[in-house]
Design a protein that fits this description.
- The protein has 228 residues and is mainly alpha-helical.
- The protein contains 10 helices and 4 strands.
- The strands form 2 sheets. A two-stranded parallel sheet has the order 1-2.
- Helix 2 packs across helix 4, helix 5 packs across helix 6 and helix 5 runs parallel beside helix 7.
Length: 228
């Protein structure tokens, strides 16, 4: 891991891309792999659908790709996607497998792979996992309430219970559920990491009392929260 600095500040996706460049051969890619954008993904999925005899318009292909995105946000491969009820006639497993195979042949990953594949790498290679744990012995994650299941899987492998992991976040500010964020990650953190210390920041320096009263009145209806 000579190319990986002992101090690293990064987004999940940027760090995932760096790790995959370092270990691309594990997934049958080269270090010069391409990261496919939305239009690239549409082209690949159109080919995979055509292979099954479907000629979908762009909007319909995007619907299928959203199912792929949901699967990868949950830490699952495209073959595990769950399609909408009006697409039950499609073999989702076969379609997802074809989609992934086409990415591999093109020496490419999609955006979701930048999160799911590092977790797979650490799970499948204990040697690599141990080296990353030794390199980054202190891990801090900001905006933890906005992490998704795939990111949590990755973190749990890189910094398992007993590690020096610092999660910063506010369960009352989780607003990205529409793109896969799971507030349950921060809610269950004290259980998954027994012995961790929970520090509540309960003094607000940015808002007037009437704003806080209104916000707390809304938040009080949340059924799942750590509370402040």
């Amino acid at each position: 891991l000579d190319e990986d600095p002992p101090l690293n500040i990064s987004t999940f996706h940027a760090l995932g891309a760096r790790m995959l460049r370092r270990h691309a051969e594990h997934f049958g890619r080269t270090r010069n792999f391409t990261i496919y954008d939305g239009d690239d993904q549409i082209s690949v999925m159109r080919e995979a659908l055509s292979e099954q005899g479907f000629d979908f318009k762009k909007a319909e292909i995007k619907t299928v790709l959203r199912a792929v995105d949901r699967a990868k946000n949950a830490g699952r491969p495209a073959s595990a996607m769950i399609l909408p009820s009006d697409h039950v006639h499609i073999d989702a497993t076969k379609l997802g497998t074809s989609y992934e195979a086409r990415l591999r042949r093109a020496d490419a990953f999609d955006f979701g792979d930048l999160i799911t594949r590092p977790a797979v790498l650490l799970a499948e290679s204990p040697r690599i996992c141990a080296r990353y744990r030794a390199l980054w012995q202190w891990v801090l994650v900001d905006e933890f309430q906005d992490t998704n299941a795939a990111q949590y899987q990755w973190l749990s492998l890189m910094a398992p219970p007993g590690s020096n992991i610092f999660a910063v976040g506010d369960d009352d500010q989780s607003i990205y559920g529409w793109r896969g964020a799971d507030v349950g990650n921060i809610l269950k953190f004290p259980d998954d990491y027994p012995g961790c210390q929970v520090v509540r920041l309960e003094q607000n320096y940015r808002s007037h009392r009437y704003i806080l009263d209104a916000a707390n009145g809304v938040i009080a209806h949340n059924q799942r929260r750590l509370g402040k």
